[in-house]
Amino acid sequence: MTQAKTLGELKRQNYQVRTVKDELRANLITKLRAGERLFPGIVGYDETVVPQITNAILARHNLILLGLRGQAKSRIIRQLTNLLDEQIPVIVGSEVNDDPFRPISAYGRQAIEESGDETPIAWVGRDARFVEKLATPDVTIADIIGDVDPIKAAKGGHLLSDELTIHYGLLPRANRGIFAINELPDLAGKIQVGLFNIMQEGDVQIKGYPVRLALDVMLVFSANPEDYTARGKIITPLKDRIGAEVSTHYPADLQLGVEITRQEAWTKREGFSGTVRVPDFIRELVEQIAFEARDDQRIDKRSGVSQRLPITVMESVVSNAERRALLTGEDEIVPRISDIYAAIPSMTGKMELEYEGEQIGAGRIAKDLIKRAAGEIHEGYFVGIDFTAAVRWFDEGNNLRLADTASASECVTLLEAVPELIDTVTIPFDFKRTDEAQLIAACEFALEGLYAQNKISRNEEGGYTAATKAKKDRRGMIYDDLTETGRFS
């Protein structure tokens, strides 16, 4: 069927206009019956968040996504547009997507009166029906609702009280679409009042002139629970008019986190002629750092630790390995533990510290998190495997430093000096001993695990040596060892 170009053609096609919430509901039902994935790329919410959002749309509710930073709230909101029709008809020239059968603006009504069935029709795509606004304290009623435009009044010869002089704000322009406000508590109270008034009664006042706008809008908000006390609050009447409050969360288990980071992190390096291989234990260790940080008493739990932390750390880890490959002329990028330490600048800015953490410093806490994460992942790979010979070698006064810029051949030569280390490390893995890049990464992982168990020590330069001091439990405070002092025996 060809698209109608006039109101008359639209009538002859028996086009049926639906409200935006009915439209979302109908398209959602179609997707559910077809077994389609509702939110592609969103991992870990299939049993929690997605069913709640589905119920809200089926109930034709406005909704709010409530959760800490880095929990895909904005991405979910933007994907709601996939539930809109591909195109809908509007009156040509309307600023508020006027329904040709029921225009809400003075312009739309005037166009129908003047042209009747010859009123020209335009078709608007789903992306143009999504309006998003980040709430900040300086947002005004004019931004959201609208304001009188003196220039319009002067050019058109209208009185200022005439509705044709209004410059519409974001909310009216989202008519017949989705209007999203991120960080809702940051919005001033009087603006929130304007929102719930138009949600419930459909009328607003612009510069003292009452204007009734029967808007057809799906309202979606996002907020961080910290905002309720730290920066602002959602006023009670507005909260009462939001049909569903959906709580988001961080990945429930490590493998979900690994899957998210694998999906989001940029690890395929254009311009590098070789290959990129990231060992599974490196992926798991990077993800475990975020889990450890969320459990650390020195890091502010109200702010949370965003999923962006493991994503950016993984990208930095691969970048450091890429730098090494470029310097050494190797044709393969395989990250090691030393690359994770080189990625500390990608961690420190993503942790809001409590007072105790500020006294210690973000850099030292990041090193501590790496150590704890390595200990957790090490246990999963090397449980029951004996490293006694390697530990004894360090206790005898020997030390080992694998520089993050050292080539694979250099590192293998150094590792061969540690008794039984290479043979022991290969037990839980299926790669061949001739795969030097993987072998080095696995050996360094094993050494970091021994360090996490306080069987050996690690200094600031990345060297492993004998454990010389009694240390606290892995989940305790900063360790009293060579990581702090920088000594190398």
Secondary structure blueprint with pairings:
Elements: H1 7-12, H2 20-34, H3 49-58, E1 63-66, H4 73-79, E2 87-91, H5 106-115, E3 121-125, E4 130-134, H6 141-144, E5 146-148, H7 150-156, E6 166-168, H8 170-173, E7 177-182, H9 189-200, E8 203-206, E9 209-212, E10 217-223, H10 227-230, H11 236-241, E11 244-247, H12 254-264, E12 275-276, H13 280-294, H14 308-328, E13 332-333, H15 337-342, H16 345-348, H17 355-360, H18 362-382, H19 388-395, E14 400-401, H20 408-415, H21 421-425, H22 436-452, E15 456-458, E16 463-466, H23 482-485
Parallel strand pairs: 1-10, 1-11, 4-7, 7-10, 12-13
Antiparallel strand pairs: 2-3, 5-6, 8-9, 14-16, 15-16
Based on the model shown, name its key terms:
elongated, alpha/beta, disordered C terminus, five-stranded parallel beta sheet, 489 residues, 2 domains, Rossmann fold, three-stranded antiparallel beta sheet
Task: Tell me what you see in this structure.
A 5-stranded parallel sheet has the order 4-7-10-1-11. A 3-stranded antiparallel sheet has the order 14-16-15. The chain has helices spanning 7-12, 20-34, 49-58, 73-79, 106-115, 141-144, 150-156, 170-173, 189-200, 227-230, 236-241, 254-264, 280-294, 308-328, 337-342, 345-348, 355-360, 362-382, 388-395, 408-415, 421-425, 436-452, 482-485, and strands spanning 63-66, 87-91, 121-125, 130-134, 146-148, 166-168, 177-182, 203-206, 209-212, 217-223, 244-247, 275-276, 332-333, 400-401, 456-458, 463-466. Helix 12 packs across helix 14 and helix 13 crosses helix 18 (362-382). The chain has 2 domains: 7-247, 3-Layer(aba) Sandwich (Rossmann fold), CATH 3.40.50; 254-485, no CATH class. The protein is α/β, with parallel strands linked by helices. The chain is built from 23 helices and 16 strands.
